[in-house]
Amino acid sequence: MLPAYGRKMIIRYPGQPLQCNRCYDTGHLKKKCEAKENTEWSVYVKLVLRELKVEEKLLGDWMKMF
Asked: In this structure, how many other beta carbons lie within 10 angstroms of the beta carbon of residue 21?
C-alpha cells in the first residue's frame, strides 16, 4: 500500500511480497498478524515518505498531515 493522491492505494504486481493490513509489515497477512494493535496509517505514511525520499512538492495533500 502506498499513499498517493491523498488516498491509500493498493499496488499489485507479480512476485510482490505479502503485506499486512494491520501492521503494514511484509511477509504475512492480517489474519496471521501477531501485532497486538493496528499501526496508525499516518505512522506508516511517514515511514514510507522518509524511506522514499520524495520531494515535498510531489507529495501534495500528504504533507499537510505532517
From this structure: 14
Is pTM, for the whole model, over 0.90?
Answer: no
Q: Which residues contact 42 (CB under 8 A, 6 or more apart)?
A: 65, 66
At 7-60, the pLDDT tens digits run 788 888 999 999 998 999 999 999 999 998 888 888 888 887 777 776 666 666
Neighbours of 39 (CB within 10 A): 16
Q: For 45, what's the count of Cα atoms within 13 Å in the CB-facing half-sphere? A: 17
Q: Which three cell numbers stand for residue 33?
A: 498478524
